[in-house]
């Protein structure tokens, strides 16, 4: 009996130990699975983050992967907690600082907005750094915050954008400069932008007025620059944009032959992801095609159709959506687009898509992501999306 009692006691201890380690073990397995995937379902990440005791670990692990969807979800979570749990979010201030210089535009903006919500002094440095990166979207974001919150020690950086080739950016820089310097430079928020429906003659006149005002703003700055401190170089030390390595990816050319992106190593690559039935994509395709002709052969521009990419339920775009031109903006994974039956083979969709693309832009010769692999790695499912890779095939802008 004593022997049986010892065995029973041992079994009870073993069961207790197994119960104690089961939950953390399952958590580690689930986290490991999410980290290994290139495009985990957002719901899986959110489920892991609901564990308050382990969410610090989850956030750090998500960020450390360097993967676009993982970093995006981590940054969105921090932003969502910035008001109610400032102390928690500030424990991850290093993620926010790194996020400001992340290759992904949505992560950069979310990081800056989160720093602003926390009223962390770093947001001012980040806004000024945005002005120096040669990215119109970032520059406008920085100009808006610096002007709205009257960060007067940013005047020198703002003035540098008066010569920006994008009229909207230059005009907004002039507006911010005048506001912060207390000078009427004759610029307003509508300059540099063509309102919908504006006649060509009116738009030409508006462009002339904008350029004349910018000439005056540049002259004013050349006469008054010494009144303001020069641009502060410390932002270059705070924020360092690091290109992100990517796994091997393949596309298919217009003849449906497999093409590895490694083939383009040695020169920068611009990838434009689109679907043929998206109105916004149709507007940009001619510009992308023109860009191919304008840029030197040392830069590759690849339009990539996602018409043949299935969703998470293995449903494909219906051929009549391509042929009849039904507009549809969302093509991301993880969503049911209302396709209730599996569609045709990807190659069949690609052939129809190629014909539609040729009608839209003769000579476009798009590539296709028949497997959806590149779309997942680059999180390019929401169209249109522009991706820039450097000479080594690393992500530098999204």
Protein described:
The chain has helices at residues 2-36, 42-49, 55-65, 68-81, 86-90, 93-100, 105-118, 122-130, 136-148, 155-160, 167-181, 200-224, 235-238, 279-294, 319-324, 346-360, 373-377; strands at residues 250-252, 258-260, 269-274, 300-305, 367-368, 385-389, 395-397. With 398 residues, the protein is an alpha/beta fold. The strands form 2 sheets. The chain has a 5-stranded mixed sheet, with helices on one face. It has a two-stranded antiparallel ribbon with strand order 1-2. α6 crosses α7 (105-118), α9 (136-148) runs parallel beside α11 (167-181) and α11 (167-181) crosses α12. The longest helix is centred in the N-terminal third of the chain and has 35 residues, at 2-36. It is flat. 36% of the residues are buried.
Task: Give a concise summary.
The protein is built from 17 helices and seven strands.
Helix content: 40-55%
Q: Helices and strands: which structural class?
A: alpha/beta
Q: Mean pLDDT, rounded to whole units?
A: 84
Order of helices and strands: HHHHHHHHHHHHHEEEHEHHEHEE
**CA-to-CA gap between the ends?**
71 Å
Strand line-up of the largest beta sheet: 5-4-3-6-7
Strand content: 5-15%
- The number of helical segments is 17
Spatial extent as radius of gyration: 26 Å
Number of strands: 7
Principal-axis shape:
flat
Largest sheet, in brief, is:
5 strands, mixed
Low-confidence stretches: 327-340
Label this structure with key terms.
two-stranded antiparallel sheet; about 55% helix; 7 strands; flat; about 5% strand
């Amino acid at each position: 009996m004593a022997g049986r009692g010892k065995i029973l006691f041992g079994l009870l201890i073993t069961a207790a130990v197994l119960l104690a380690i089961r939950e953390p073990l399952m958590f580690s397995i689930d986290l490991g699975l999410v980290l290994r995937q290139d495009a985990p379902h957002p719901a899986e990440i959110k489920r892991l983050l609901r564990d308050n005791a382990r969410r610090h670990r989850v956030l750090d692990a998500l960020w450390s992967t360097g993967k676009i969807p993982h970093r995006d979800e981590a940054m969105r979570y921090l932003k969502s907690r910035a008001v109610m749990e400032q102390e928690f979010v500030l424990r991850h201030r290093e993620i926010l600082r790194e996020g400001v210089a992340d290759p992904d535009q949505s992560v950069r903006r979310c990081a800056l907005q989160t720093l602003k919500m926390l009223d962390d002094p770093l947001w001012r440095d980040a806004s000024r750094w945005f002005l120096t990166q040669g990215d119109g979207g970032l520059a406008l974001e920085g100009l808006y915050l610096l002007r709205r919150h009257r960060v007067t020690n940013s005047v020198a950086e703002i003035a540098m954008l008066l010569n920006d080739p994008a009229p909207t950016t230059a005009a907004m820089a002039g507006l911010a400069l005048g506001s912060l310097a207390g000078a009427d430079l004759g610029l307003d928020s509508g300059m540099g932008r063509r309102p919908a429906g504006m006649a060509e003659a009116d738009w030409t006149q508006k462009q002339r007025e904008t350029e004349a005002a910018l000439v005056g703003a540049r002259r004013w700055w050349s006469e008054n620059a010494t009144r303001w401190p020069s641009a502060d170089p410390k932002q270059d030390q705070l924020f360092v944009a690091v290109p992100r390595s990517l796994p091997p990816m393949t596309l298919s050319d217009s003849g449906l032959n497999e093409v590895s992106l490694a083939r383009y190593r040695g020169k920068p690559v611009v990838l434009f992801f689109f679907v043929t039935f998206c109105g916004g994509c149709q507007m940009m395709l001619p510009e992308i095609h023109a860009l191919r002709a304008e840029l030197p052969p040392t830069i590759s521009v690849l339009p990539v159709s996602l018409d043949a990419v299935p969703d998470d339920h293995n449903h494909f775009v219906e051929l009549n959506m391509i042929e009849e031109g039904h507009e549809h903006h969302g093509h991301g994974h993880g969503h049911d687009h209302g396709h209730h039956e599996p569609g045709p083979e990807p190659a069949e969709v690609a052939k129809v898509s190629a014909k539609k693309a040729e009608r839209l832009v003769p000579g476009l010769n798009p590539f296709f992501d028949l497997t959806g692999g590149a779309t997942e790695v680059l999180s390019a499912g929401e169209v249109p999306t522009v991706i820039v890779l450097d000479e080594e095939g690393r992500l530098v802008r999204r």
